[in-house]
């Protein structure tokens, strides 16, 4: 059976809906609303979900729904704006009633809650965000929930296999939303939950074997989750015909090289080549203080070192494939746009030079981050790798404000290791997205230690909470944890005599300092 297709009407929720569908173990993909009925049907959808969107359903330039889509015999579920366009397509009515609802709203379940709302609390909270309202459900559909201002907050027609809700079931502010979604998929669309981590692993291994045949592949390990899981999958599929390359650019945090060389290799048995390029990167960064310049240099050197490693391997065997840890959010076509794929042009170290003579293997292309982590655990990778917090490719190079030198790197590494240790032992790793520690190397701060005045440097703690790094808030760490970090850093790291806390959200501040 094909995927559940989420048609993206331009709200920010389409990917979230796809994730929620997958959480009930049903495979789901996002397509832009510009996809034609033929394109959607070519995917043999098990069901179609119409997402919310910013437009007004009857404004002339609203992204419409081709009514043909509702006649294909495929179960359909409409959410918010999708609920309205579906109602219109099936003969219901949508109007600007002037009764807008935004945010937490209470719905009342009808005496017959139908399939989707049966036995849910008679009144419960949902998340609404709409100006227009459905004033008449499609003929033949039962209205199963309403709110004070929206008489038709949910309709369903199980015989014709369509339904919808005005609210957003996919967000956590609708506590029963996930159950409603699950009931649609299971009880109206009749889809069995078969998208499990084990099935993902099996399927991907099959695909990798088909693609690579008896060829050889290279995978660059960054120390991050994605490349580690991609490599582990390919290792399962083709064994020692995979070689991983790990570049130590000297901008890593304490223990990271060992984590790759020891823990990752122990867990996977992968062939690993480590390139020690620490001197080379330090030389290239000498005298450079401009952040973008640093990023360019690090990126450029990284590619050169990696290409040399590739040439060395190619001289030894027929390496034709390159493994990349590209994820679904990087490739999904979303938004209501002209269908242009919004492939993320991340300023990532390890970005591919264009003339590379490789065929790409991207075993995580269909997966969201949480699924990647589950696959990693299924493959036996250690928690410390699977739940590693994000760390930028240019590493500590962009966390030293000022020139990057060997000694400054040592200082920052020591301070960073203390902060990480204390956060881990306080059990806070899952509460924070990441916590950059930044060395203000060009700032001198005065301190007093023993009898003498010191001129050291401040470090900044930047703990942030975030869903996706696009926006972030500073994490309210407990004072006692902050105190332990501060005391230990100022005692144990001789160059640092001050620890300060960054209390800026993003926006306006970015997560990194440069
Ligand atoms: P900002 O600082 O833009 O960071 O709020 C958002 C996320 O991206 C990471 N980041 C980078 N990652 N190369 C990377 O691979 C970079 O140059 C880079 N700059 C920032 C940052 O750690 C955060 O997770």
Automatic annotation (TrEMBL):
EC number: 6.3.5.2
Keyword Ligase recorded: yes
Pathway the protein takes part in: Purine metabolism; GMP biosynthesis; GMP from XMP (L-Gln route): step 1/1
Keyword Iron in record: no
InterPro entries: Class_I_gatase-like (IPR029062), GATASE (IPR017926), GMP_synth_C (IPR001674), GMP_synth_GATase (IPR004739), GMP_synthase (IPR022955), GMPS_ATP_PPase_dom (IPR025777), NAD/GMP_synthase (IPR022310), Rossmann-like_a/b/a_fold (IPR014729)
GO MF: GMP synthase (glutamine-hydrolyzing) activity
Alphabetical UniProt keywords: ATP-binding, Glutamine amidotransferase, GMP biosynthesis, Ligase, Nucleotide-binding, Purine biosynthesis
Self-association and partners: Homodimer.
Protein name, UniProt field: GMP synthase [glutamine-hydrolyzing]
Name of the encoding gene: guaA
């Amino acid at each position: 059976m094909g995927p559940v297709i989420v048609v993206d009407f331009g709200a920010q929720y389409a990917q979230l809906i796809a994730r929620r569908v997958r959480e009930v173990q049903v495979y789901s993909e996002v397509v832009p609303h510009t996809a034609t009925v033929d394109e959607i049907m070519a995917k043999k959808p098990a069901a179609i979900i119409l997402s919310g969107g910013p437009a007004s359903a009857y404004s002339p330039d609203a992204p419409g729904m081709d009514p043909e889509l509702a006649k294909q015999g495929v179960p359909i579920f409409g959410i918010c704006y999708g609920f309205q366009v579906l109602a219109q397509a099936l003969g219901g009515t949508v109007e600007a009633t002037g009764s807008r609802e935004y945010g937490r709203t209470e719905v009342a379940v009808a005496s017959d809650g139908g399939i989707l709302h049966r036995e849910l609390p008679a009144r419960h909270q949902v998340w609404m965000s709409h100006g227009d309202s459905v004033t008449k459900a499609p003929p033949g559909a039962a209205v199963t929930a309403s709110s004070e201002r929206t008489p038709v907050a949910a309709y369903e027609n199980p015989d014709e296999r369509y339904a919808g809700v005005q609210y957003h079931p996919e967000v956590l502010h609708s506590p029963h939303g996930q159950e409603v979604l699950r009931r649609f998929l299971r009880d109206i669309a009749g889809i069995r939950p078969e998208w499990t981590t084990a099935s993902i692993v099996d399927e991907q291994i099959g695909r990798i074997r088909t693609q690579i045949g008896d060829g050889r592949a290279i995978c660059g390990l960054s120390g991050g989750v994605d490349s580690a899981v991609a490599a582990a999958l390919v290792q399962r599929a083709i064994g020692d015909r995979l070689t991983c390359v790990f570049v130590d650019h000297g901008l890593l945090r304490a223990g990271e090289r060992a984590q790759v060389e020891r823990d990752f290799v122990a867990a996977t048995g992968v062939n690993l080549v480590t390139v020690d390029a620490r001197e080379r990167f330090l030389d290239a960064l000498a005298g450079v203080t401009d952040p973008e310049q640093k990023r360019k240099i690090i990126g450029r050197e990284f590619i050169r070192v990696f290409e040399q490693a590739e040439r060395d391997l190619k001289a030894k065997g027929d390496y034709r494939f390159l493994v990349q840890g590209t994820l679904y959010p990087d490739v999904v076509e979303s938004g209501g746009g002209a269908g242009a794929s919004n492939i993320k042009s991340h300023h990532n170290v390890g970005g591919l030079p264009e003339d590379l003579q490789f065929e790409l293997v991207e075993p995580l292309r269909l997966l969201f981050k949480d699924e990647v982590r589950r696959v990693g655990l299924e493959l036996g990778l250690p928690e410390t790798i699977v739940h590693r917090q994000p760390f930028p490719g240019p590493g500590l190079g962009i966390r030293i404000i000022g020139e990057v030198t060997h000694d400054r790197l040592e200082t920052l590494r020591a301070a960073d290791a203390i902060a990480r240790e204390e956060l881990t032992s306080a059990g806070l790793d899952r509460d924070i997205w990441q916590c950059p520690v930044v060395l203000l190397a060009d700032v001198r701060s005065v301190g007093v230690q023993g009898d003498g005045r010191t001129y050291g440097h401040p470090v900044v703690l930047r703990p942030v909470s975030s869903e996706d790094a696009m926006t972030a808030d500073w994490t309210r760490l407990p004072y006692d944890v902050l105190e332990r970090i501060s005391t230990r850093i100022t005692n144990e790291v001789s160059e640092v005599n001050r620890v300060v806390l960054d209390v800026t959200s993003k926006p306006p501040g970015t997560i990194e300092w440069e």
